[in-house]
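call fold(seq) -> tokens
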Amino acid sequence: MSESAVVLAVLGPLGLANLVLVVGLLRRLRRHDALMQTMIDGVANPEPIMLTAGEEIRDFNSTTAAGKPVGSADLHGRTLVAFLSPTCPACIDSLPLFTARAQLTPGGPEQVLAVVVGHEEETTELRERLEPVARVVVEPPSGPVAAAFGVLGFPAFAVLDDHTVAASDFALERLPDTAAA
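ret:
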């Protein structure tokens, strides 16, 4: 047997085994993607995470991290709202999209409200990242702003028309664009 025949005899089955493994891996990845999409579309959020479209927010009064008063009476027009927690990985993951959308919101930070829920010492970094694009309220769990919006989990996002929820979801990308309103 020649040297090239030996190489083919060894590499042929090895290449075939590699091909079978790659095809099997691709099939498993497709199934995984389908399962993940099912979770995102339905199972991951069977109940509303906060007040839903058409519901009015309750009255609240609070103070921003900058020391300015903010309350339900201060929310006028189209307002982008976020409830985030520094201990929530999905909140941290959604932060770049939220800040980008907030920068495009007509009216700037006055039309964006970000509520950071947690204990003061753990909220500093998140608050600092949000302050350039939003009015930021830091409150403990079950604080007055979260209660006014009926927040049940994090992250929670909403678009308001005055005091009425136009849309809300745990996924920011599912909300209407505030710049297009």
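The helical segments are 3-43, 89-104, 120-130, 144-149.
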